[in-house]
Design goal:
Helix content is 77%, strand content 0%. By secondary structure, the protein is mostly helical. Among the domains are: 4-100, Orthogonal Bundle (Helix Hairpins); 223-270, no CATH class. The longest helix is centred in the first third of the chain and has 24 residues, at 59-82. The radius of gyration is 25 Å and the shape is globular. The two termini are 42 Å apart.
Length: 271
Amino acid sequence: MENQDESLVALQELIEVVAKLRSPDGGCPWDLAQTAQTLIPYVIEEAYEVVDAIKGGDCAAIAEELGDLLLQVVLQAQIASESGEFSLKEITQGISQKLIRRHPHVFGDVSVASVDEVRQNWEQIKAAEKGEAFADSQKLSAKLARYGRTLPPLTAAMKISQKAAAMGFEWENIQGVWDKFDEELGEFQQALAEETPERQQAELGDLLFAVIQLARWHNLDPSAALQGTNQRFVQRLEKMEAAVDRPFSDYSLDELETLWQQAKAQLAKEQ
């Protein structure tokens, strides 16, 4: 069993390392240049890398990636503490108090008989914390807005469409979904030819949302699908790089296409 005191000592060491990196007296120029906003991409990236490590099942990799994610928490706390906004103390005390409040069946005298009751209590307490009526917090629009704010876009789009469909906001058949896709594709093409970049981006979003509806109707996971495509693309490039002795820029487009097809066929045989 790990000694709790040793964990606290290790955490304190990390806090001191981050403070030194942010110190105007001998700190790291890169770390000193960061703000809470500039670190947002790293928070997201590290969270995804934790998920990837967990899926891989490598304990050493999981521990390393969790460390990278913890660094982002401590770094955000350090930046906020420098301007007197909050510190790691407020973060840790806040989450501890929240867990105690939202688990009255563990830390209080509330009795529950199922996971569903735990979840319902959680939502009621959460709404009270935010000063919302429980009924308002359970409105479809409120739930969907939370998905849009807090989930990756592909995941949010799928969740939003699933919840809306469950409430009856749904096509009668798959042909209606394909018709919507064709409509959005046409509007995107028209926007590219005639509209402003803002309208083009809006129409691209509508088209992607329509693709996600097709995925939902066919019980496909768009996030997993895109992740698989990304992996296959990189794997084919690796095969291409192994087969050439010059930079890709030295090859014609036709030559690169030939190499691409060869890599694709080679990977298919290996599977």
